[in-house]
Specification:
There is one protein chain. The protein is of the alpha/beta class. The protein contains 15 helices and 17 strands. It folds into two domains: 273 residues, Alpha-Beta Barrel (TIM Barrel), CATH 3.20.20; 97 residues, no CATH class. Helices cover 30% and strands 19% of the residues. The strands form four sheets. Strands 1, 2, 3, 4, 5, 6, 7, 8, 11, 12 and 15 form an eleven-stranded mixed β-sheet that branches. It has a two-stranded parallel ribbon with strand order 9-10. The longest helix has 13 residues. The C terminus is likely disordered. Bound molecules: zinc ion (2 copies). The site of one zinc ion (ZN) has 5 residues, from loops.
């Protein structure tokens, strides 16, 4: 049974997040996207934790579902259809991102970590520990904690030895374990005695596993990928694909990560890393960007304003890499995707993925035909050709599946741009779209 998992999202209580991020809305969006298991995120936030306890009921060890009473309660729908529309089949886990700011050595460090909790009771104990230390958990769904990463992990293991910590978006410049601005050069430097318990790192949108495979130091961990969604439509931008014979529990997932079990962890679903906001080096104010090899020649300064360039993830990976080429041997493979709404927008020749036409087509396909991951990864092209309002969508998905794309890399906080049909956009038949 294929199980697609997204372990990093936020709630409406996290900074800069959509008001729609509540559990009864997240669940049906996951059905539309094809996500089987999603995290609640943000359980250290008092209001969100209350919402979690009201809405969810434990299904298996560490795996939750919406209570039958939650949701629209529409009696107009057949039970099967209601289950789908209300997202009753979506399962939840308790994975929380925290932002840690602390001094180590003589440097200020800023690191984001994911905390995996097996139960509501364990979350309660963690919250009590954090409150006792005077941390402000109300200000943000992703709280800022003044605690060293190694020390935090020790405290969590004392509370419940089942808990694990996974460094989040490991390469982003400002808030990550390997970030160029305030991170570390190795897992050991950050986690010290707790290093053996780091089973995985999250690659983040701006890097993909192949880039990480250039570091022999990361051979001991698996790469996971999640959406870090701040709105429902970004759920599952990246995800993890497993295959289990029985419905998995919390312990099953942790065991697979710990043992790097490639018979269960099939692959990750990735953004093209160039599309991420911090892939290349650059200066957003001057709209200047370049490859790491170029920025060295210009002394890492913007040629226009002369300020230091923000060095991207590509640069940082190259700096720490100890292999000339990445080798897939012994690693969990990955597949690269472009979000369906972006593909539809390009086929229609419109700039915005939130335009009415794009949204209508997106909802029509995912309501009536298949979920987004199935359409992107599995659906035969003949079917897509029949279902889509423009048959060019099938060709676009084919190009995405085979990697025939052009990409302008993102830099300094600006997203990169993926073009499936190159600079000039989708070819249009002469009679079509006379409007
Ligand atoms: Zn983060
Ligand atoms: Zn500049």
């Amino acid at each position: 049974m294929r199980t697609i998992v997204d372990w990093h999202i936020h709630s409406k209580y996290a900074r800069a997040c959509s008001k729609d991020l509540v559990l009864p809305t997240i669940a049906p969006w996951c059905v539309r996207k094809g996500i089987d298991v999603v995290t609640t995120g943000d359980w250290t936030h008092p209001e969100w934790f209350k919402h979690i306890k009201e809405c969810l009921v434990e299904e298996r060890q560490g795996i939750f579902r919406l209570r039958p009473s939650t949701g629209s309660g529409s009696t107009m729908l057949s039970p099967e259809r209601a289950k789908r529309v209300e997202g009753k089949e979506t399962e939840f886990m308790l994975v929380q991102e925290v932002s840690q700011i602390y001094k180590k050595g003589d440097k200020t460090r800023r690191v984001h970590n994911l905390i995996f909790s097996p139960s509501i009771e364990t979350c309660e104990k963690v919250i009590a520990m954090m409150q006792a230390r005077g941390f402000n958990l109300k200000a943000d769904g992703r709280p800022i904690l003044g605690i060293d990463s190694e020390e935090l992990y020790v405290r969590l293991k004392e509370i419940d030895e089942k808990m694990i910590v996974v460094p989040a978006h490991a390469w982003t410049p400002w808030y990550a374990i390997f970030g160029s601005k305030s991170g570390f050069d190795s897992i050991e430097e950050c986690f010290g005695s707790m290093t053996p318990y780091i089973y995985a790192i999250e690659t983040g949108l701006s890097s993909d596993p192949a880039m990480n495979w250039k570091l022999s130091a990361l051979d001991s961990v698996v790469m996971i990928s999640n959406s870090d969604a701040h709105s429902p439509r970004n759920l599952g931008r990246e995800a993890n694909v497993f295959s289990f014979d029985e419905p998995p529990t919390f312990d099953d997932f942790v065991r697979v990560l710990k043992e790097k079990d490639a018979s269960k962890f099939l692959y990750t679903i990735e953004f093209y890393p160039q599309e991420g906001k911090y892939h290349f080096d650059g200066c957003a104010a001057c709209q200047f960007s370049c490859a790491p090899s170029e920025s060295k020649k210009i002394d890492y300064r913007c040629p226009h304003c002369k300020r230091p360039l923000t060095l991207g993830v590509h640069h940082r990976v190259e700096a720490l890499a100890d292999r000339p080429h990445s080798s897939a041997k012994g690693h969990i493979p990955f597949r690269s995707i472009v979000p369906l709404a972006e593909i539809i927008a390009e086929v229609f020749g419109v700039a915005s993925t939130t335009s009415k036409r794009v949204q209508e087509e997106y909802f029509r396909l995912t309501d009536h035909h298949a979920n987004e991951f199935t359409l992107l990864l599995d659906t035969p092209l003949e079917d897509i050709r029949r279902w889509a309002s423009d048959p060019l969508l099938a060709e676009a998905i084919d190009r995405m599946r085979t990697g025939h794309l052009t990409i302008k890399p993102g830099y300094d906080g600006l997203y990169g741009q993926v073009k499936i049909f190159g600079e000039h956009g989708a070819p249009k038949p002469k009679q079509a779209n006379l409007l």
